[in-house]
Amino acid sequence: ALACSFGAGLEAAELRIGIIGLDTSHVVAFTKSLNDASSPDHVPGGRVVAAFKGGSPDVPASATRVDKFTAELESTYGVRIVATIAELCDLVDAVLLESVDGRVHLEQAREVLRRRKPLFIDKPMAASFADAKAIARLAEESGTPWFSSSSLRFAPAYQQFLAGAGRGAVLGVEAHGPASLEPTNPGLFWYGIHAVETLFTLMGPGCVSVSMTSNADYDLAVGVWNDGRIGTVKGLRKGHQAYGALVYGEKSVTYLPVTDVSYVPLVRQIVTFFETGRPPIPPAETLEIMAFMDAAERSRLKGGAREELPR
To answer: Which residues in the chain show pLDDT less than 70?
Structure first.
């Protein structure tokens, strides 16, 4: 049996998982990993049993894909599609909030947190720092465990580097990745989140200010940490748009390319989190990532002026 410290023990061999928001390719990838025992990417311990369609009509990346992904979950994986989030909560032990539009996350999380269902929130946690703080507050008030992350945090290249013996201190990082734009989810919140998460994965928390310069093809956000270290994010909209990071260390300068973006390491973390109620990332660090993107967007609007992270 799976005993969970945050509520009643779950008397089942497999966690019943629900999904909110069927408008991202993540829902198919995650469900295949969890439900298809024959897949080489299978992660045991949980099964997606129900889903709430969601969708944002004013976001093309949502509106043009939600019906296709809904049909695939229903027909290929036998997932039950429900009409409300309340109905979803009746059927599951834990929830994946997958809506591609960060603006809807706060409203969609409310019922889940009220019902004290452990919650994973896919990137971005929200489309604003204010919404992210509100989600964290609701979770704290109800005593519900949650975490939010880009899959890039758990990329083997980064995790192996961090686990390396004798590597010495990280003195600075230049992270890069795609940063396509969506007007409804400002600046880095839409896709730049992956490179920002990379920066914090390797630097750790402690950023106090950001300045960002942007044009049609690139973003360059420069963060200053409370110990004087500097870390940057280069958001790419032109040319080859790979993920990776250059790490300036005490003992070496190391380039860490991410050549294969797999969701499996993240799904493993999610299942362990659902089983234990212990998030792999401190909520404060995720909120700092949201604050970084908030300050970066304010800086962009002011022509690159230095902006302190909101608290």
So the answer is: 1-12
| Helix runs in 60-128, H state only | 60-63, 66-77, 85-91, 105-114
Q: Please, are residues 125 and 280 in contact by the beta-carbon 8 Å criterion?
A: no
- H or E segment to which residue 121 belongs: strand 119-122
Per-residue pLDDT at 89: 98
Instruction: Please state at what angle helix 193-203 crosses helix 283-301, rounded to 10 degrees.
Output: 130
Rounded Cα distance between 27 and 6, Å, is 25
CA–CA distance, 241 with 179 (Å, rounded to integer): 8
Specify whether the CB–CB gap between 198 and 177 falls below 8 A.
Answer: yes
Distances in whole angstroms, Cα of residue 187 to Cα of each of 31, 55, 300: 29, 21, 8
Strands 230-236 and 170-178: parallel
**Residue 151: CB atoms within 10 Å:** 22
Q: 32: which 2 tokens? A: 């295949």
E strand or H helix at 206: none
Q: Of 110, 128, 119, 129, whose CA–CA distance to 149 is shortest?
A: 119
Cβ neighbours of residue 289 under 8 Å, at least 6 residues apart?
Answer: 125, 193, 196, 197, 200
Amino acid 300: pLDDT: 97
